[in-house]
Design a protein that fits this description.
Elements: H1 2-5, H2 11-35, H3 40-48, H4 67-77, H5 82-98, H6 103-110, E1 120-131, E2 134-144, E3 152-159, E4 167-173, E5 178-180, E6 194-204, E7 208-210, H7 211-215, H8 220-224, H9 234-263, H10 277-306, H11 315-341, H12 353-364, H13 372-383
Parallel strand pairs: 1-3
Antiparallel strand pairs: 1-2, 2-6, 3-4, 4-7, 5-6
Helix pairs in contact: 2-4, 4-5, 4-9, 5-9, 9-10, 9-11, 9-12, 10-11, 11-12, 11-13
Organism: Sphingobium sp. MEA3-1
GO molecular function: acyl-CoA dehydrogenase activity; flavin adenine dinucleotide binding
Protein name: MeaA
Length: 392
């Protein structure tokens, strides 16, 4: 497939490849959940398909495509494994973040094979001590999704003794990072979202960017690359990662519920579930709601792609976007919970895809960037002339 990477590729080709890989993802999903990581075979298939190059600039051999391409690829995977889709989305999206760093950083990261597998989080878990040419970094962070195959990490920290507090985002090679194997959770188990620690590693200035520049779409990469996608604010773009995971999970749950309803027979009465009015109503509503969720995703992508490039950088637009994503997540989680109410206790067996989706989406709905109350509060505060209480 490498030959295909050296010529122009279309969205349809990439989505088609995701559709071809999906059965393998489904076959590995239960084992991955138990292992606490997405299998190497699945990650290798994602890499070989070219997915990691979706956002990589063309000068580094990437495809330099729009966010809807990533979303469609991820949505093909997420009905079968929310965890695999999540890790894929983060790997794709964090190559976008690499493209926002200074040119020297991009040269280092993209040179080996044209992309990187990069977990990370923007939370300020690290202390950056200024030294000649950069910083000495110490600290710890959580929620580093995809740590099992990491090559680089992006994290955040505060500069020690700075005149004005400022969050700095930095890239560190995996060789400078200690992975703490503490990922033992109820949902999103296969994401290997481990804690990591950095103890005294040197990070040069060219691997650092002020977070505010990323949040407001004025990073070094925005000035370096002509394509307007690189001037998008960070959070609206990264929400294009997570939203197809959520919507696809809901669609996967509805698909599983439909199969269950067609097959299920009540053990005492031999009544077929498919002949029960309540099951028919629940399935009909679930099908409608999952289609609406897909419409919401497409509407969100249209918004991000077509909003005026200066307007989308305003705090008002970014707060509204964050609140919208949280509301869509809440809608999808409620939809999954409704089909669970109409299922039997047997769907809580560990080999049932439905219980895995149920666990995954209820963990995602309280994720820091997807929580409904947090997103709604941010928009409400901005509407009242107050600063948002969270990153937007």
């Amino acid at each position: 497939m490498e030959e295909a990477h050296n010529k122009m590729i279309t969205k349809q080709e990439l989505v088609g490849r995701a559709r071809e890989i999906a059965p393998m993802v489904a076959a590995n999903a239960e084992k991955d959940d138990i292992a606490g990581m997405v299998s190497d075979a699945t990650i290798d298939a994602f890499c070989d398909a070219g997915f990691m190059k979706i956002f990589v600039p063309k000068i580094y051999g990437g495809y330099e495509m729009a966010p809807d391409v990533m979303a469609e690829v991820v949505k093909e995977i997420s009905p079968y494994s929310t965890s695999a889709a999540w890790v894929l989305a983060f790997y794709i999206g964090h190559n976008f973040l690499h493209a926002l760093f200074p040119k020297q950083s991009q040269d280092e990261v993209f040179a080996p094979r044209g992309f990187s597998l990069t977990p990370g989080t923007s939370a300020p878990g690290y202390k950056l001590t200024p030294v000649e040419g950069g910083y000495i970094v110490k600290g710890k962070s959580s929620w580093n999704s995809g740590s099992s195959r990491a090559e680089w990490y992006m994290n955040g920290g505060m500069v020690e003794n700075a005149e004005k507090p400022e969050l700095i985002l930095f890239m560190a090679p995996a060789s400078d990072v200690q992975v703490i194997g503490n990922w033992d959770v109820a949902g999103m188990r296969a994401t290997s979202s481990c804690d990591i620690a950095i103890d005294g590693a040197f990070v040069p200035h060219h691997q650092c960017v002020p977070a505010v520049d990323m949040l407001e779409g004025r990073s070094p990469g925005a000035k370096l690359h002509a394509n307007p996608i690189y001037s998008l604010p960070m959070v609206p773009l990264l929400q294009c990662e997570v939203l197809p995971c959520v919507v696809g999970a809901f669609q996967g749950a509805v698909r599983e519920f439909q199969k269950l309803t067609q097959q299920r027979v009540q053990s005492h009465t031999s009544e077929k579930a498919a002949e029960k009015q309540s099951a028919q109503i629940r399935l009909g509503k679930a099908l409608t709601d999952s289609a609406l969720a897909d419409d919401m995703l497409r509407n969100y992508l249209d918004l991000v792609l077509n909003m005026d490039r200066e307007e989308i950088k305003t705090v008002e637009a970014r707060a509204a976007i964050r609140a919208r994503v949280a509301a869509i997540t809440d809608f999808c989680a409620n939809g999954v919970n409704e089909v669970m109410k109409g299922s039997s206790a047997s769907v809580f067996r560990n080999d049932s895809p439905l219980q895995r989706i149920f666990r995954d989406i209820n963990m995602l709905r309280v994720h820091g960037s997807l929580d409904l109350e947090t997103g709604s509060q941010a928009l409400g505060r901005v509407a009242l002339g107050l600063p948002p209480q969270c990153v937007v």
